[in-house]
Amino acid sequence: MSGEKSLKVALLGCGTVGAQVARILIEDGGALAARSGASLELTGIAVRNLEAKRDVQLDAKLFTLDAEALIDSADVVIELLGGMEPAGAYIERALARGASVITGNKALIAARGAALNAVAASTGAQLRYEAAVAGAIPILRPIADSLAGDHINKVMGIVNGTTNFILDAMDSTGAAFDDVLAEAQALGYAEADPTADVGGLDAAAKAAILASLAFHTTVSSDQVHTEGITEVSAADVTAAAAAGYVIKLLAIAEKLEAGISVRVYPSLIKRDHPLASVRGAFNAVFVEAENAGDLMFYGAGAGGNPTASAVMGDVVAVARQLSAGAPLPHGSADSAAQLIDFSAISTRYWIGLTVFDEPGVLARIAAIFGEHGVSIESMNQQAALGDGPAALRILTHRGTEAALASTVAALKALDAVDTVLSVMRVEGN
Ligand SMILES: NC(=O)c1ccc[n+]([C@@H]2O[C@H](COP(=O)([O-])OP(=O)(O)OC[C@H]3O[C@@H](n4cnc5c(N)ncnc54)[C@H](O)[C@@H]3O)[C@@H](O)[C@H]2O)c1
Ligand SMILES: N[C@@H](CCO)C(=O)O
Ligand code: NA
Questions:
Q1: pTM listed for this prediction
Q2: Which of 6, 24, 77, 159 has the fewest CB atoms within 10 Å, i.e. the most exposed one?
């Protein structure tokens, strides 16, 4: 197109996602310009090592060690470094001078999104981060834009590809946790520090972002009750399978009468639940809205190309806005989040115990549940090996976290109980 606007695009980072974003910007310039109403000129890529091997062959002249100079001459900055700093300072620098920013950095947005949005609002710049939650799946824009005229009551989903890949492999092949984690890292799904994935922090950051947008408020990751999958054993996966369940790491944000609950934990779901069929590094997110009813979003949750797709969608959206010359109204957070204490949340539980196989043991265990107001739905005992303890798996009806915690403490104190193997929630019907 002749006479069209040209926008200077600075890319920060050339790793798994950044390299694919550079490739698309270069290979697909014609289509991007036609869709944006502006040509997108990749002016440089900030890297740490000019000589490093990249996933994509790129002109060496694009690389620079001077990220700040690159930012200071850009209309649009794409941040794909990861981590809190210097990514946060770079984004703030760009927004403060009026450049729009696209990022996939959920950790940073979940911690400082409100402050960065305020800087953007003060200069009329845009800050977009669709890639930060559920990779390629369009989920933030549907929540913030398409459902802006509705009221969202609950968002629940699988939002971490690495842990889903691991749990799926443990379930389908009986693979060991560590071997599968190495594979997920090699495929580019895991964070630079994979403890963020397996410890649930990556999903917690995404849950905080989803809750903030869905409920028009500000929730940060440290307000999210977070449990990862490091304690999930092969025995848990096998016992869950035998009972007709699969274990998934779920992120849940829900609006209850007393306030908002945002939580991440490994959870049992029935094999016929739609989330049970989410395999490998795929993600899926359910949204329940007052007028829309139930919606489900599904797709690739991680990986270079899928995540680059989400980044590029934001780049085109920003470029359209800039070429039209009209600043977007900024979505506002109505109020500070009223979060409910985790102890008040009520779900069903699945508790694994080893017990000494003696007369009266089951009655004593059942009595403890009764005394703490937790009602048992079913109990399954695996025969003891020789004189060793027998394994028990107990499924409960709904009870509060507070009641569960006191039940588990009492079980641990019982002589007949050898160990409490695991305590997990059960979600879905
Ligand atoms: N990989 C995915 O599937 C995926 C999906 C969604 C979001 N994200 C997010 O996208 C971002 C990038 O992820 P990635 O998987 O591409 O990570 P990556 O580790 O593959 O790439 C990051 C790159 O940035 C470089 N870098 C780090 N600090 C730098 C600095 N100060 N200056 C210049 N270069 C620097 C690193 O050397 C590396 O090459 C992260 O915020 C991540 O959470 C990743
Ligand atoms: N490490 C993240 C990348 C996508 O955000 C995951 O495994 O889902
Ligand atoms: Na997304």
A1: 0.95
A2: 6
For the Cβ of 1 lying below 6 angstroms from any atom of ligand 1, the answer is: no
* ipTM greater than 0.95: yes
Exactly one of 5, 106, 206, 248 is catalytic; which is it? Answer: 206
Asked if 200 contacts 221 with a C-beta cutoff of 8 angstroms, the reply is: no
Q: Which atom of ligand 2 is nearest to the CA of 165?
A: 7
Around ligand 2, the residues with Cβ closer than 6 Å are 135, 160-162, 189-191, 197, 202, 301-302
Look at 383 and 313; give whichever has higher pLDDT.
313
65-80 pLDDT tens trace:
999 999 999 999 999 9
Q: How many A from CA of 148 to the centre of ligand 3?
A: 17
Q: Would you say 295 and 157 are in contact if contact means Cβ atoms under 8 Å apart?
A: no
Distance (Å, rounded) from C-alpha 270 to C-alpha 342?
24
C-alpha 222 to ligand 3 mean position (Å): 21
Question: Cα 106 from chain centroid?
Answer: 8
Pick the CATH number of 342-426 from 3.30.470.30, 3.40.30.10, 2.60.370.10, 3.30.70.260: 3.30.70.260
Is position 206 annotated as part of the catalytic site? yes
pLDDT value at residue 367: 96
